[in-house]
Specification:
The chain is mainly α. The protein is built from 16 helices and no strands.
Length: 433
């Protein structure tokens, strides 16, 4: 490929991604759909770009973008909100994932005549809501803060559940013990290790930031710390993505905890107060650093996710997509059926949610980065018998994002009072710029 053409293509894709992201608030079309369709056009359709050049880089781009998105999501979550909505988000995430995985496994066993283990592997890949899609969309849709945080907690935990489930099933398929006690202990221990390491690293980095932030390139150093936390927890057999999420969550909230416990007398704040006390300059130093980290890592994540979804579209096999479209529709039906049952069963938990808000929870089931990354991982681990999975994952990602589009359009019918309550609870416009 000509180097000048390559640079022009990258520049054009970033412009397209920026425009698509800005247009979400008007068109309600998730930008991931535009990016993947663009990849299909410049790859399999027009052959402007040879996708084989980038085939080996897809998994790395996806994993790195997911790390950054989870870290950014952790930075942006408030401790008060997590404590208030964790129960509802955890119930929604775990029950939705388990039921969707089972429903998709049943569909694959019926359609493909797979064994239950192989069918569950497909269900584990396709079963979780993607934080890489849902986080940016929630920032641009007028929902009450309670609904937003519940969905954000669900998406954050969903990524972790998917990684745990796929990793465990691959181990079992490779001959590891399938005893329920062994599997349960493996899941619990990996989560505890990940949370502990993420929180400890966040506390340590929080103490170092006041010194490091006086130096140039401290954002790059923080990015390096994120990667080291991920790699270290992975080496220790913990859940690496959960550790990154809690690293960001601790880094974003621990300064307020220190002030609450009078460990830092320079400023005053309540760690259960979402609005920090400002110093004489108008912003608390810790909040200023957090804003800078959010900006830097958010833009880096935007860059990587743009390339990943375009690459995903370029690498899809057109014939495989058509062949798996019917199975993709069957999987979409299974996902929506499982989601409807869970939302209706959980109405007692989110009693304050209106009927329309519960309906939106059914539509907001996008699959994205984690689905594609895990699909590639399964193919690498299980071989040619799962060669169809990337094309199926692509189809399910597209279909669930169209479901998200329906939900985004339906969100326009929310009463004005609900939008105003969003503004009142955050102190900001309902649609951040």
């Amino acid at each position: 490929m000509d180097l000048t053409f390559f640079f022009a293509l990258l520049g054009g894709l970033l412009v397209l991604a920026f425009i698509a992201n800005r247009l979400v608030r008007f068109t309600r079309v998730p930008d991931v759909i535009i990016l993947m369709v663009t990849g299909v056009v410049i790859g399999p359709v027009t052959h402007w770009v040879n996708p084989d050049i980038f085939r080996g880089a897809t998994h790395g781009f996806g994993e790195l973008a997911l790390i950054l998105i989870l870290f950014e999501g952790g930075l942006d979550l408030k401790l008060r909100e997590i404590l208030r909505h964790f129960g509802a988000g955890f119930f929604l995430s775990l029950s939705s994932y388990v039921l969707a995985m089972a429903a998709i496994a049943g569909a694959c066993r019926f359609a493909l005549h797979f064994s239950w283990l192989n069918a569950l592997l497909v269900g584990a890949v396709l079963g979780c809501v993607s934080s890489s899609i849902l986080f940016p969309v929630l920032q641009q849709i007028d929902l009450r803060r309670d609904v937003k945080v519940t969905l954000m907690v669900e998406a954050s935990l969903g990524d972790a559940f998917a990684v745990l489930a796929v990793t465990t099933l691959l181990d079992v398929a490779g001959g590891a013990s399938a005893a329920p006690k062994v599997i349960a202990w493996s899941l619990v221990s990996s989560m505890i290790l990940a949370i502990a390491c993420g929180m400890l690293a966040g506390m340590l980095w929080s103490y170092l930031l006041p010194v490091l932030s006086e130096e140039r390139f401290w954002h790059v150093l923080t990015f390096a710390a994120v990667l080291l936390v991920y790699a270290g927890v992975h080496y220790l057999k913990g859940n690496d993505l959960v550790s990154v999420l809690f690293f960001g969550l601790t880094l974003g909230n621990f300064p307020a905890v220190r002030r609450r416990l009078h460990l830092d007398e320079s400023t005053g704040s309540d760690w259960f107060n979402e609005v920090p006390v400002k110093n004489s300059s108008g912003r608390a130093p810790d909040d200023y650093h957090q804003d800078q980290m959010l900006t830097f890592h958010g833009e880096l994540a935007f860059l990587l996710r743009t390339f990943f979804f375009v690459l995903l579209g370029m690498l899809v096999e057109y014939s495989g997509l058509r062949k798996n479209l019917r199975l993709g529709l069957l999987c979409l039906f299974a996902i929506l059926l499982a989601r409807t049952l869970i939302v209706q069963a959980g109405r007692i938990i989110w009693r304050s949610f209106s009927g329309l808000e519960c309906e939106l929870m059914i539509w907001f089931v996008p699959r994205g980065l984690i689905t594609a990354v895990l699909g590639i991982e399964v193919v690498q681990g299980r071989g040619t018998s799962f060669a169809f999975l990337p094309s199926l994952a692509f189809a399910v990602i597209l279909l669930t994002n169209f479901a998200l589009l329906i939900g985004s359009i339906r969100a326009r019918n929310l009463p004005a009072t609900e939008v105003e309550s969003t503004q009142a609870s955050t102190g900001e416009p309902a649609i951040p710029q």
